[in-house]
Design brief:
With 157 residues, the chain is an alpha/beta fold. It is built from 8 helices and 5 strands. The protein is 42% helix and 18% strand. Helix 3 packs parallel to helix 4. The chain is globular and about 40 Å long.
């Protein structure tokens, strides 16, 4: 999680900083398959969340819609859209850093915990978190990210 937070922190020095990063690793070996950050703004795509982008790229890389045998790490608890995609992809486990409640302190959010989405599905996935909470929360409080939040929050969702 610390390495993912460091990867995500690289965006803080760009024109489009984001606190949301995700990485998919093999559940048994820990080998990284894919990682990405949120790109909603640059891609003009409200579904370009870090988790969805990482899942799409990983599935494309292995030429399969199934990510069974893999774990998703994410700097923030997946929103319902991202958690649903993790379930559809068959991920073994989702591990998150900051929480949905943390994210809601800084911007718009759908207030449904990832574990609740998993509980209401007939697909199983272990949901673990928060893990390395302070490291991931620091992405949200970075001064450059705070400026970006001000811009984001001035726009209607």
């Amino acid at each position: 999680m610390r390495a993912l937070a460091a990867f995500t922190a690289l965006t803080m020095e760009t024109l489009d900083p984001v606190p949301y990063g995700a990485e998919i690793v093999h559940s048994k070996t820990g080998e990284s398959l894919m990682r990405a950050t949120n790109a909603v703004g640059p891609e003009h795509d409200p579904s370009a969340h870090a988790e969805l982008r990482t899942i799409r790229l990983a599935c494309n890389k292995i030429q399969s819609y199934s990510l069974r045998g893999y774990t998703l790490y994410t700097t923030c608890e997946p929103c319902p859209m991202c958690m649903a995609c993790a379930l559809w992809a068959g991920l073994d486990r989702v591990v998150y850093g900051a929480t949905i409640a943390d994210a809601a302190r800084f911007g718009h959010q759908i207030h449904i915990p990832a574990a609740e989405v998993e509980k209401r599905a007939d697909m199983r996935c272990v949901v673990d978190g928060p893990v390395e909470h302070d490291v991931c929360l620091a992405l949200f409080t970075n001064p450059n990210m705070q400026k970006a939040f001000q811009r984001w929050n001035s726009q209607k969702p």
